[in-house]
Amino acid sequence: MAVARPRRGALGLRGRIVGALLVTTAATLGVAAVALLGPLEHSLRNAARQTLVRDLGKNPTSAFVTKLDLSALLQADTGPGSPASIARQSLYQQQQALANRIGGVVEVLGYPDGSDNGYLLLPFGLEGDSAELDPFDDVVKAFQTGRSVPSFGTIDGKEYARVAFPFKKDGLRYVLAARRPIDEIPGAVRAVRTAFITAALAGLALTLVLGIPLAATLGRRLRRLRQAALQLAEEGPVVEVPADRARDEVGDLARSFALMQHQLHQQEEARRAFVATASHELRTPLTSLEGMLELLEDELRSGDPPDVQDARLLLARARAQSRRLGRLAADLLDLSRLDAEVKLRSEPVELEEISRAVLAEFARETRERGIVTELEDSAGPVWALGDPGSVARILRILLDNAVRVSRPGGELRVAARGGGRAALSVRDRGPGVPANERELIFERFQRGRDTGGQAGFGLGLAIGRELAERMGGELRLQDADGTGAEFTLELPLARAPEEDSPGSPS
Ligand SMILES: Nc1ncnc2c1ncn2[C@@H]1O[C@H](COP(=O)(O)OP(=O)(O)OP(=O)(O)O)[C@@H](O)[C@H]1O
Ligand SMILES: [Mg+2]
């Protein structure tokens, strides 16, 4: 037998699961990092600049407006006690006080010559070195626009939040430039980035640690199922499917697979039992037919004139066996048609009329055995939806059984009724069906205690029930009420066909 070879891509299920987990984890952390780190840095910087503006106070230039004495500052004599030295000292103290308050650097810049050609850092600024490195872009802008300019800048690799305030004194323009280092922001962003990378690495490691065993377990469980499926294909449904009690999809698959195997096993058992019983049932009449024919042959060969009486008896018995064989063949054919799901017709069937016709088939036998049959008056036609041949077949099965179990002089009633559903029932006054046989008798090759002393195969009711179900109805044994048995066939009701329609009974 050809064994299905595994067809797998380069990665297989395990590789794909682990890969998908890794990609998902990495992508999630990457997207989170991009979405968080950029805005975080931006808002931290803005916050730092706003704090600087707030710390500088509402009007940081006012003190300089009063204290700034340019003519004194520009005097050549800067010796101790000179007006220039005193003015410088005063401005320096003012700058220093503000610088201390904000924890940064404060410088005053202006156009001492009154021209707009450039600016000059007044010579008492403390940060001489940084002043050379500082491009003072914000100061230039503040001079040009006459508005305060908040900005960021880097001096000698160090980042600052800055604000430049323009102000006037004696018709001359100055700018107060304040800045404060913001080293803690890149530090904080670096810390968050490091935390992210650590989380990403931990996440990926965890994904591998959890994903690989999970994928391996899944693969192992699926391989076990595959193995069982291959074995089942090779050896048939006797193979046991390994139990998988896990509460997940693979567990569900394994349980469904086990259920399928169980049902296949049952069907296989039923098929074997059926074939065994059917061949046994066929062999019995065949053997007895063979025996009778042999006897007949012996009789004819013996040379003496044959005993005609004996020969007639043997022939009659042989014919009975051949009829029995014919019936069995017909029953088996019916069953195989039912198993092959041959479609039944679905059309309006008038139950009273069909009952009358089938009862007529039994008229000779019932008369000979003194059985009284009666078709109850149903006060009008009862239309059911079904297959006319199958309805007649079911009625034949029921009447055949009822006639078999009825004693001479017994009574047999057939009734057709409408209502919610159409019903056709056959009632006899025979021995009835014992409680423990009520369901058994509907199974194939199952006969009950009372068979009316006649041969049969135990197939009638099984065929009848299956036919009824295939027509959307049911065949059941009514609850015992007094003596005898009552079987009822229920079918969907049908609307009476139009009188002149082609399908109507003539
Ligand atoms: N009206 C009845 N009263 C009592 N027992 C019944 C009646 N009808 C059926 N049975 C029981 O149900 C059994 C199954 O009936 P079923 O028609 O399936 O098979 P059968 O009559 O034994 O054989 P066959 O295949 O020839 O019909 C019978 O053997 C009998 O024991
Ligand atoms: Mg029967």
Describe this structure in words.
With about 500 residues, the chain is an alpha+beta fold. It is built from 13 helices and twelve strands. It starts with 11 loop residues before the first helix and ends in a 15-residue tail after the last strand. Bound molecules: adenosine-5'-triphosphate and magnesium ion (MG). Magnesium ion (MG) binds near residues 397 and 460.
Which properties best describe this structure?
506 residues; alpha+beta; Beta-Lactamase; Heat Shock Protein 90; 5-stranded mixed β-sheet; 13 helices; 54% helix; binds adenosine-5'-triphosphate; binds magnesium ion
H/E element sequence: HHHHEEHHEEEHHHEHHEEHEEHEE
Count every beta strand, where a strand is a DSSP E run of 2 or more residues: 12
Question: What is the residue-mean pLDDT, rounded to a whole number?
Answer: 86
CATH class of the domain at 347-491: Alpha Beta
Bound molecules: adenosine-5'-triphosphate, magnesium ion
What's the gyration radius in Å? Answer: 54 Å
Estimate the helix proportion, in percent: 40-55%
Write out the strand line-up for the largest beta sheet, numbering strands in chain order: 2-1-5-4-3
In short:
This protein is an alpha+beta fold and 506 residues long. It has 13 helices and twelve strands. The chain has a five-stranded antiparallel sheet with strand order 2-1-5-4-3, with helices on both faces. The chain has a five-stranded mixed sheet with strand order 7-9-10-12-11. Strands 6-8 form a two-stranded antiparallel sheet.
